[in-house]
Amino acid sequence: MENEYRERAENPMDAVRGKSSREKYSTEIPEEKVVKKEKATRKESVKNASAKPKVENSSNPKAKVKAATAAKPRRQNLLIQVLNGEILTRDFVLNNLTFIFFILLLLMLMVAKGYYGKQLQKDITDLQADVDAQTAEYIENKARLEESTSRYRLVQALEKRGLKETVNPAKVIRLKRADNE
Fold this sequence. Notes:
The protein has eight helices and no strands. It has helices spanning 2-8, 14-17, 31-51, 61-71, 78-84, 91-95, 97-148, 151-159. Residues 52-56 have low confidence and may be disordered.
């Protein structure tokens, strides 16, 4: 890509600054054709102006409004220009094409971020449900363990083996050690 810029001997930032030359890939209409079209539209407007009846003397205000709007050359509707692609050939669009692509990239990132956020929220909900299930299972197992190791149950299980619970508390025997030893 660098070689292309070197071969053209053009600064790549000129396109960003609006100084790009459109010699090779021009979508603009050559000046000769523009001049011919302007002359043709001037002739048509002169013919239309001379062919229009004068409505100024008329007392009807709607006729005056129609005559005023008919005198102005009609611009194509912006929606029609977007649909048929003429808006893409305007100098403003062509000069700011990199900025337009940047805005489109930001819009795509914004949409992707929305989908990513929804996916994260779904994952968090699923993991929270798993944690709740594990917590319930832990509490249930802990309750079973406490019940099975209760004093009453242990006494019943040990009676089958012939062991009895002591009535007297256990005594601790402590020996005094001599420091010599």
